[in-house]
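> forwarded from #structure-qc
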């Protein structure tokens, strides 16, 4: 407690007079003149009843005076801060005194009060000064301070902070601010022009949202009192993002592989980039960048996940590897790129392709072994085993395959060809790759073998036999030789020629001619068996190759006998006039050989097989003729009654068909003595008359024959002219015409017609006399049929035994081979 001397103070007065109660003002102003004042100093916030000052003592008033004078306190307002204890003469605190409430910022702070005494009235002024006590802390208005500061804020950026308030005054007032420790901000104390203080936060170090996105600071305000009081407010700094970070891929190169022909949508790999920014600045979209043309059609990247997958057709054969860059981009436009390398794995999806680069076709059959026929190029666009090719073909074919260069294969002959056996080959060349599963393809080469004249014409037999019956018509076809040539076309075109040789001093060509194209042998003349029995010809067949090849065959033409000669009686000799008779004695018995008729036949075989028969006889009972041998024998005893003159007519017949015969008259004289015979045989002269008659008949017959001959000649000429005109018509109608006629054939016989069939069979006989020819072993024989109306020839086979018998058939010559 401070007691000050009661010196009137002009200031206090002034303050007092300003009070609103004018009535007391006049009174007090008057009283003042009479009395002094006292002054006390007390701290604020004293308890009720605390002593302010001993008024009685200080005013030198005794307690009695106070009681009698009914001392009391008078204040200008309602506040009764103080109470006067009259019994002790002291002033005490009546209610709480708050300096801040009483005075606010005004210093010094005091209030005054008056003590009035009555009897006599005394007025004393008491001034109580209230001294500040540090009872208030600095306080902030808000609970917390929130700042949003971009991380891009530059150093030195200032942020004004809220000021704190302290109701105390003087040293107890706000003294300074402090900021909790941090790296980024510092405080700067500043004063307003009116002297009030404030602080700013100044950025000292750049903010990094990515390092620290929120700062929590404390701003502390302290006063100067003792003990010191302080107030705190939280400062929240939110660092605002700035797109200061680009996305970054977590690899510089991504490698992956995928099979070719992978399905659309097949996963390949994932690229990943990070952006430490937040929000849109950290939102990454992926894309393909710096693409080669076409990559966008094959691969696709998911813009949000970075998954790269297949979106098109991948062909290893087009590209084995794809390289491109992917880009990551945030919303702020910052980017990063990374490389992606995708290897394509081969799949065996391509079959080998065969290309025939050259192909020699046809090849001649004499092509030597080892000749290259074709060159084949085989490609497989796959790689590795998938493109590794094996090439092969059917082992049974006479070819082999050899590789010449990479991918080139030669087809080489591996054995000799024979066009006559195989004229065409289908060569399937198969190429297979080694992939799994392997693919293959085949090409087929159709190779033709061309002909070389390597085969001579060949006849079916080394020799042939043909039979022709004598007296044939010239130009008749006898036989056909036929050769085969397995070559082709011109090399197989056969011409038949007759080789030069001679038979009986005449060239063979004077006997037969040959049609060079058909091989038909024609008789060039009419044969006479009795002159020539056989011809041996050499026929040459020659092909049209270059050089030509040929071969020969022997053709035996056997002339066959016809019964064209009657038997000739050699004995007994028939003379016109003289009489020859055989003598038979009367004494002879049975079986007496009278004579033997001897006859010959120049024909052969059956045609020369003679038989003898008795045709007429004077006495048939007396003689017989041996059928085989012509022996005339007696068949009974000759008697005296028998006539001397016996006349026998013996007919000699051959066995031909038809048979020819000759008769001979045998005179037999049955007598014992020659004179007897003579007398009897004068009768034989009668036969002269008979002979005269015969001469007449002969002349007559000659005349008739001559007439017939002339008639025939006329008929033949007419027919020939008619035929000639017809053949002209045939030429114009271009009907097939035999290109070759043996000259004699056409000269002499326009038609070659023989209306009868001659079947001839030669039989094996034991009689060695006649048979020239034996029937051959059971084989086939050639039969030539000549059709006179068409003048063509036809050959057919006939068994040995079957003999054609139709009477209307054209001329047939059956030939039997002779061994
Ligand atoms: C890159 O990111 C992907 C996806 O998060 C992850 O699978 C891969 O392991 C990362 N690579 C590296 C090298 O960190
Ligand atoms: C990317 O992938 C996500 C998640 O798998 C999917 O939902 C989205 O449809 C895909 N985007 C495209 C463009 O395919
Ligand atoms: C080629 O040969 C292989 C193996 O013998 C066979 O499997 C395939 O079918 C053949 N290819 C053709 C097209 O014939």
């Amino acid at each position: 407690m401070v007691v000050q001397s009661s010196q009137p103070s002009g200031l206090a007065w002034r303050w007092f007079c300003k009070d609103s109660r004018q009535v007391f003002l006049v009174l007090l102003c008057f009283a003042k003149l009479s009395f002094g004042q006292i002054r006390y100093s007390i701290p604020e916030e004293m308890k009720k009843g605390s002593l302010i000052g001993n008024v009685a003592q200080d005013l030198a008033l005794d307690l009695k005076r106070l009681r009698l004078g009914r001392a009391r306190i008078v204040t200008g307002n309602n506040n009764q801060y103080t109470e006067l204890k009259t019994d002790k003469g002291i002033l005490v605190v009546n209610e709480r005194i708050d300096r801040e409430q009483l005075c606010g910022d005004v210093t010094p702070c005091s209030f005054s009060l008056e003590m009035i005494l009555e009897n006599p009235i005394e007025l004393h002024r008491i001034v109580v000064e209230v001294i500040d006590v540090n009872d208030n802390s600095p306080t902030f208005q808000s609970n917390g301070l929130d700042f949003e500061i971009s991380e891009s804020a530059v150093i030195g950026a200032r942020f004004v902070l809220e000021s704190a308030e302290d109701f105390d005054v003087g040293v107890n007032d706000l003294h300074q601010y402090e900021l909790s420790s941090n790296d980024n901000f510092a405080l700067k104390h500043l004063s307003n022009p009116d002297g009030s203080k404030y602080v700013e936060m100044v950025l000292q170090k750049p903010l990094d949202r990515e390092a620290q996105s929120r700062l929590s600071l404390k701003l502390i305000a302290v006063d100067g009192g003792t003990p010191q009081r302080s107030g705190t407010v939280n400062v929240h700094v939110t660092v605002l993002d700035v797109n200061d970070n680009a996305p970054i891929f977590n690899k510089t190169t991504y490698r992956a592989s995928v099979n070719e022909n992978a399905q659309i949508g097949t996963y390949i790999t994932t690229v990943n980039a990070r952006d430490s920014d937040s929000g849109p600045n950290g939102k990454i979209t992926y894309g393909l960048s710096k693409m080669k043309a076409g990559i966008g059609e094959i691969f696709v990247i998911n813009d949000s996940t970075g998954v790269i997958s297949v979106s098109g057709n991948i062909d290893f054969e087009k590209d084995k590897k794809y390289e491109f860059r992917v880009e990551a981009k945030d919303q702020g436009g910052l980017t990063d790129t990374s490389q992606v390398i995708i290897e394509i794995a081969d799949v065996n999806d391509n079959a080998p392709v065969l290309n025939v680069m050259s192909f020699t076709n046809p090849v001649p059959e004499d092509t030597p072994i080892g000749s290259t026929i074709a060159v084949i190029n085989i490609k497989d666009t796959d790689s590795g085993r998938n493109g590794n090719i094996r090439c092969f073909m059917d082992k049974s074919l006479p070819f082999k395959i050899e590789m010449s260069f990479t991918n080139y294969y030669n087809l080489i002959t591996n054995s000799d060809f024979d066009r006559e056996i195989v004229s065409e080959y289908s060569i399937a060349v198969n190429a297979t790759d080694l992939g799994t599963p392997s693919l293959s393809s085949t090409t087929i080469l159709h190779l033709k073998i061309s002909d070389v004249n390597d085969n001579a014409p060949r006849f079916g037999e080394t020799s042939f036999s043909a039979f022709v019956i004598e007296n044939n018509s010239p130009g008749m076809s006898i036989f056909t030789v036929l050769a085969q040539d397995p070559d082709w076309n011109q090399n197989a075109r056969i011409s038949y020629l007759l080789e030069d040789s001679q038979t009986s001093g005449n060239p063979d060509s004077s006997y037969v001619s040959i049609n060079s194209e058909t091989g038909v042998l024609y008789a060039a003349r009419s044969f006479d068996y009795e002159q020539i029995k056989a011809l041996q010809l050499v026929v040459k067949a020659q092909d049209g190759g270059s050089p030509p090849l040929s071969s020969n065959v022997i053709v035996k033409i056997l002339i066959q006998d016809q019964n064209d000669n009657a038997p000739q009686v050699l004995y007994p000799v028939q003379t016109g006039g003289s009489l020859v008779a055989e003598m038979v004695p009367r004494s002879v018995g049975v079986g007496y050989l009278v004579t033997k008729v001897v006859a010959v036949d120049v024909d052969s075989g059956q045609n020369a097989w003679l038989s003898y028969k008795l045709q007429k006889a004077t006495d048939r009972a007396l003689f017989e003729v041996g059928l085989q041998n012509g022996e005339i024998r007696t068949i009974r005893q000759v008697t005296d009654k028998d006539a001397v003159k016996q006349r026998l007519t013996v007919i000699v017949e051959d066995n031909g068909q038809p048979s020819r015969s000759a008769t001979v008259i045998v005179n037999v004289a049955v007598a014992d003595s020659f004179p007897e015979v003579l007398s009897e045989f004068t009768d034989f002269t009668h036969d002269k008359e008979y002979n005269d008659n015969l001469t007449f008949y002969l002349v007559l017959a000659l005349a008739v024959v001559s007439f017939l001959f002339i008639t025939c000649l006329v008929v033949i000429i007419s027919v020939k002219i008619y035929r000639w005109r017809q053949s002209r018509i045939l030429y114009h109608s271009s009907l097939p015409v035999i290109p070759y006629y043996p000259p004699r054939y056409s000269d002499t016989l326009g038609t070659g017609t023989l209306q009868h069939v001659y079947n001839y069979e030669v039989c094996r006989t034991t009689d060695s006399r006649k048979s020239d020819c034996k029937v051959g072993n059971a084989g086939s024989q050639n039969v030539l049929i000549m059709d006179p109306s068409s003048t063509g020839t036809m050959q057919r086979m006939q068994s040995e035994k079957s003999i054609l018998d139709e009477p209307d058939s054209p001329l047939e010559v059956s030939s039997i081979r002779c061994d």
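QC bot note: Residues 576 and 691 are 8 Å apart (CA to CA). Residues 302, 304-305 surround 2-acetamido-2-deoxy-beta-D-glucopyranose (ligand 2) (CB under 6 Å).
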